[in-house]
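EI: anyone free to look at a 297-residue chain?
SC: sure, send it
EI:
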Amino acid sequence: MDIRQLRMLVEVVRRDGFSAAAETLFATQPTVSKAIRQLEEELGETLLERSRHGVRLTPAGQIVYRRALALLGEREDMLRELEELRGLQRGALHLGLASLGSDVLFAPVLARFRQQYPQIELHVQQRGSEALEESLRAGEIELAASLLPVADDLEWQAVRTEPLVALLPQAHPLARRPSLQLQDLAQVPFVLFEKGFMLNRRIVQACLARGFTPREATRSGQPDFIIALVAAGLGVALLPRMIAVARPRPDVAVVPLDAPELDWKMALTWRRGGYLSAAAQAWLQLVAEFAPEAGPG
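SC: here you go
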């Protein structure tokens, strides 16, 4: 068993197939398939159930996958510590920023970081919170933007808390309400977020808790497109207030939503007990300066 095999297993699971994993790893599909087969033979366990619809971890595969994430994360920690021990003049910071809200929250911080630390290479992934947490555990990124609360294996620093608001076409009867309850939207189609957005799962859970399943009109991961879909009459969208007000449209009404448990609580997270490079610590400090409510968790 080697790190390369574990990396391939993680990518096959995350990409839900051998072809997509091979593309990500810049390898051929037979190479990836052979590596997984060799890993299964060495461990004496079947790790993946393969079908036309993708792959699924077996019980043994779940154990190996969880441990592989931890081992890959530890490897990246070791390399970062050694890099700083050698006193290299140039370093790198790998960040995972949420697709939702990073333009408002983190673009100014990125600009300041570049000014203060021009020698540090910045590598940024933009994905949903759930996908970023997987990358964090695998050591591919040092810090990830995610929604609170986070899992016990992560530490965090608060960035911003925003209530959700409901976006509706101006002509919709509910658009004239001073505020809305979530159950008021039970008969309205929802423009939801793509898979991998933690907020999406929480919205669905909150609707279910109020006795209805949200009717899905469509999905998107881009706020501007979501608002355009609302304007076109596809349904209602729920967005953090600061994101909605930063994109005003005369044909879209922004109505306060009375659902405090859905407040959008953005934080920066890292692996509990993991090594944070000097570059990562500098980033956290800058975010704290830009975000008055920032603080350790």
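EI: The longest helix spans residues 59-85.
SC: 👍
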